[in-house]
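In this section we turn from sequence analysis to structure. A common task in structural bioinformatics is to predict how a protein folds when a small molecule is present, because the ligand can shape the pocket around it. The inputs are simple: the amino acid sequence and a SMILES string for the ligand, here magnesium ion. Study the lines below before reading on.
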Amino acid sequence: MAERQLNFNEALNEAMRQEMQRDPKVILLGEDVAGGADVEHLDGDDAWGGVLGVTKGLVKEFGRERVLDTPISESGFIGAAVGAAVTGLRPIAEMMFVGFMGVCFDQILNQGAKLRYMFGGKAQVPLVIRTIYGGGFRAAAQHSQVLYSLFTHIPGVKTVVPSTPYDAKGLLISSIRDNDLVIFFEDITLGAMKGPVPEEPYEIPFGQADIKREGSDLTIVAIGKMVHHALLAAEELQKQGKSAEIIDPRTLSPFDEETVLKSVEKTGRLVIVDESHPRCNMATDIAATVADKGFDFLNAPIKTVSSPHTPVPFSPTLEDHYLPNATKVTAAALALF
Amino acid sequence: MAERQLNFNEALNEAMRQEMQRDPKVILLGEDVAGGADVEHLDGDDAWGGVLGVTKGLVKEFGRERVLDTPISESGFIGAAVGAAVTGLRPIAEMMFVGFMGVCFDQILNQGAKLRYMFGGKAQVPLVIRTIYGGGFRAAAQHSQVLYSLFTHIPGVKTVVPSTPYDAKGLLISSIRDNDLVIFFEDITLGAMKGPVPEEPYEIPFGQADIKREGSDLTIVAIGKMVHHALLAAEELQKQGKSAEIIDPRTLSPFDEETVLKSVEKTGRLVIVDESHPRCNMATDIAATVADKGFDFLNAPIKTVSSPHTPVPFSPTLEDHYLPNATKVTAAALALF
Amino acid sequence: MELSKEQLVWMYERMQVIRVFENRVKVEFGKGKIPGFVHLYAGEEAIAVGICTNLTDADYMTSTHRGHGHCIAKGVDPRGMMAELFGRATGTCKGKGGSMHIADMDKGMLGANGIVGGGPPLACGSGLTAKTNKTDQVTICFFGDGASEQGTLHESLNLAAIWKLPIVFVAENNGYAESTPAHYHCSVENIADRAAAYNMPGLSVDGNDIFAVEEAAQQAIARARAGQGPTLLECKTYRFFGHFEGDQQTYKIPGETEKYQNEKDPITLFKDNVLSRNLVTAAELNAIEEQVNAQIEAAVQFAEDSPFPEVEETFTDVYVNY
Amino acid sequence: MELSKEQLVWMYERMQVIRVFENRVKVEFGKGKIPGFVHLYAGEEAIAVGICTNLTDADYMTSTHRGHGHCIAKGVDPRGMMAELFGRATGTCKGKGGSMHIADMDKGMLGANGIVGGGPPLACGSGLTAKTNKTDQVTICFFGDGASEQGTLHESLNLAAIWKLPIVFVAENNGYAESTPAHYHCSVENIADRAAAYNMPGLSVDGNDIFAVEEAAQQAIARARAGQGPTLLECKTYRFFGHFEGDQQTYKIPGETEKYQNEKDPITLFKDNVLSRNLVTAAELNAIEEQVNAQIEAAVQFAEDSPFPEVEETFTDVYVNY
Ligand SMILES: Cc1ncc(C[n+]2csc(CCOP(=O)(O)OP(=O)(O)O)c2C)c(N)n1
Ligand SMILES: Cc1ncc(C[n+]2csc(CCOP(=O)(O)OP(=O)(O)O)c2C)c(N)n1
Ligand SMILES: [Mg+2]
Ligand SMILES: [Mg+2]
């Protein structure tokens, strides 16, 4: 029989529903994660279920004591999520857009990420922060950011970036069951993308990259939505007689160096596709690892395809020019031969 | 006659004094940059002049209207500095420790850094944010951070990291005269370090690395205090018959790729020393650049010497083990031969 | 102080420009002509216009994600604004900013802001500039009821208070932050009640009554110009449309919007008032309406006819020099 | 409610432990035995101890950079604390945290905090846990006068108010934030005056009078346990030493410290009070003093004799698993 298909958002919703059913310590909080708090005629039901509807229906099933709408006080409620995690709950906090992280950055950088270490291991922070990231929505400079490189830099934080509905469900379940601070990145344009998703709960271990396509002539490491650009590029490259292997790290911290190094050992060529701004980003992180530990495998320079060192422009013509795409990936790959 | 010697803090103080004398639009604000605000018996004089005394004496010369003590409201006063810069002043804001940046991160990430672009070039943000960074003071996880990699990632921000009193004065003057948002990093342990500093004001252009030592066998790029570790390592390497060239980028954004690439073309070997946490940091940024544009020059893997992926520990034995030092740099260099 | 006929005409014209502009944006957004997010100001016109009645181009303003009305009231050209929303090169920000980032330095408009609570600290900055330069420029800081729970507001109110900055903090309390009612997210009934926590005057007025807004603003602005420091002015209002286009608004009480549209439309209230007092004639108001309709029609035409920016523009305006 | 003799003895003993601990830390720091920054609590003992008189180990506490007194009052072992300050493996946090990061989960002590204003959001979290689990655990959130200008406090007060969290926010107003007087950085005279902005009870008491503190705290704690929500309690006090060791304190009014030490020492005030009321005898108090001196002496010995952590410890405790 055909596998069940869910879209990205449905997969995320199911992951949270199943985990909240399994473990009463799991709670959800954020701005309008339900919506319509204290609105009588809604009778406790949600008005929004999150700005993109990802948490729709959860308040109906679990009630307002476990699905909490918050004021626009990100330092307050992200810090509260950290404090709740340290004292025994397992919160899933929604930070609407990753671009807003600046208003609560300290509670992640200096509290959530460092408490365990500063306290000599006596505390743990089982917290998941879900957030929307990425361009293509014409949402302009503040609402189209990527920023996972900033969080990958921070010891004590784990960073997860799914590229398919299947990975989204499995990685979110793993994040909720994980005992550390996890920041879970959801691409703003992939919500409606469909794919096979098993009904029962399942985990995808952190630090295990997924080879989305086997190949022999070059390795393309791509993150999140970039995986789909890379897959398109691979088709084009195939036509030109070049077989590309596509690796999706799925988690950036921890990062699966081994799978990447093994692939480069086989192919001798590497292109990294990362939607971030180019400086100190994930692409440079991976390139540095390979330039050290995989230097002897390389037959060509390491190419990175990233967004330019400019904020994200609003106008569609500019944003399309700004973002990485299959054509840019193909060009970078061909430059290696 | 012998050149005049100043220590790092004196050089910074002189740079600010001379620029405030030159341009009435330059103001200073931050927590206790003067200290003792509204304390009668001080009669307007400062109590602290900054937590490390770097701004001592400035309030006496320029008055409380141009040297403003602030409440502990970093988002408030850093944002105010951005707003003041946009409307015509040239503020120097002191953000005591870089580890505190989390509490005002949005005002830098989404306001100061992006306004000019979002407004189509109609605004400019001539603002300098001075901040203390780095380990070795036994100040523990929150007060010993480096974090310039986070800011280097952000388009619209310039990042400056001086390693000597001479560079400190020239780069701070250039920062104050620059019309963009500059974050100026001051190592917590270098304050008392002496060196020759000319009396008259002078600028050091951004994006121009300084070769702190000429060499032919390998290139060591080192940032801030790491330059001094690298120079010590170079002595040791010389004894072992290896001539190291030490490059100090001085500004990370913009970054002088050319000088680094030319050096690697000559030496064929590269070690990068960066006190930051290892993931997505400046060392990976430089390594990625060379692994792409300088690949053909390389005769060996690119080695990076950074702090580990853990918060900074308090105990001296642990912090000494944690931080990069000359021995670690020497070992990394020798591994290339 | 009595409002001159000239002022009354200006008020009506500005409110109409905002209303017609927003209604048209809704239509064009529906047609897919305007990309991204748009947050409409319809229903709240009396606040922006009432506040700006006593300002000049030299005065400053910080705004929010719902900034079209603020821009228009401050004198930003609707043609450039519409072109900006359309993402065109002729837009106020060359098409780089869009709806949430419209700014016009020549008008003292320091920018709409996509970050809730992002504006108040910036307002302290323009206030500090005015104070340092010893000018009498005032800064207006608009923020919503939802933004009043943001820490940046608290820090800015305290900073403005201790430095006696020439700022008028204007809380636009439209009863909701997205789908969340103010009576849930806010621990006090009136945001203005928080003024006492900063030892500054606080006042709560009917934000749909432009005369009440103008009068309160006039005093707060005079106070700021006189160097007596900031004021917190709350204007209670209501948004006629959803939080953003696409919002189903199930959180609104059934009939709530209609009630406000029928009984509390700030434009109708103004019209009834000035006509009943014979301060302006119906003919004069009609003439304004026709002129405004033509102006917005022309603005849309202008936007439609304008080119998209050249792709090279992607890389400019990041730094002054780099 | 009358305090039992047992409670009075506990209060005196705790205050003495804090005082002797801090005085000794000052000495050891001077000798170079304690690295980094230390912020001493001497002079403010009545607050931490008065507040903790009605707490159990199950209750939570968030603290500040000046946290030694809070820890001791909450029952954290001074031996482990001293070893932590010395950077030894036997420290409360294995020597990894130091003075600004002492925490002890078993005592509900959620950590000193090097970030001013870092604690209040965390306090909302432990408050939320207690509310969600329907326990009667209370969270005490200590912060200074300087921290009261931090946005995180505003957000936390509002959040605690609308969620009716079982928290007592304790403002330790010692008149200075580093070298900056509260009358400069704070726009209101009493931090407790800000409680009204969140519709919660606010009270300002003499923080050097442990009986006043205990009484106010008792009510606030009872209110929290009963599910009636948070309280903002301001305790006015004074720090006997500098902001941190090394501070020249030129901002203090000449004679100010001596005046407080002579007339407002919380320990002397307590002593005079209980002796005059014949609630405890001088002999009993002396015995406590001797026992405390011995205890702290032993703590220093313990720290001195303890090993530094193994270098491998540098890499542990970052994640539960990675
Ligand atoms: C820091 C931040 N948090 C959240 C958001 C998402 N957001 C945009 S508008 C809004 C509601 C704002 O409500 P209010 O301040 O009352 O303004 P209104 O929309 O009612 O005019 C929210 C939560 C944001 N843009 N920035
Ligand atoms: C976010 C942040 N800003 C600034 C500092 C530096 N700092 C440490 S303590 C302090 C003063 C705190 O004053 P207060 O809250 O009154 O506490 P007190 O020291 O008087 O006990 C400052 C500014 C910091 N640690 N964190
Ligand atoms: Mg609102
Ligand atoms: Mg204080």
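Chain D touches chain B through 45 residues (CB under 8 Å). As an exercise, try to locate the residues that line the magnesium ion site and compare them with your own expectations.
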